[in-house]
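Lab meeting, item 3. Inverse folding demo.
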């Protein structure tokens, strides 16, 4: 029985004081790694489809809320510590 090939997709977006819908991933992510250079500090986040709702892990606060996996990517909520206004946020999704 053959298993499906693992897919990986990388990209970036600019943080904002609003929800951000990243709908450019060509598959439904199982995991998402996020990191943002906010100038003063670097924030890191991790989201897995095994985590409930919009919960994710953050280097700033431990468990935080605000990242939701969608069929074509993910949404980062306003107020999530990885969504730093005007900072470039990099991500890597895997299926």
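The presenter then showed the designed sequence:
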């Amino acid at each position: 029985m053959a298993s499906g090939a693992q897919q990986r997709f990388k990209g970036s977006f600019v943080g904002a004081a609003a929800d951000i819908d990243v709908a450019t991933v060509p598959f439904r992510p199982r995991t998402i790694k996020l990191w943002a250079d906010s100038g003063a500090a670097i924030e890191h986040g991790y989201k897995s489809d095994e985590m409930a709702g919009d919960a994710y892990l953050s280097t700033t606060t431990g468990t935080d809320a605000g990242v939701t996996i969608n069929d074509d990517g993910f949404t980062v909520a306003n107020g999530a510590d990885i969504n730093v206004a005007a900072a470039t946020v990099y991500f890597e999704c895997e299926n």
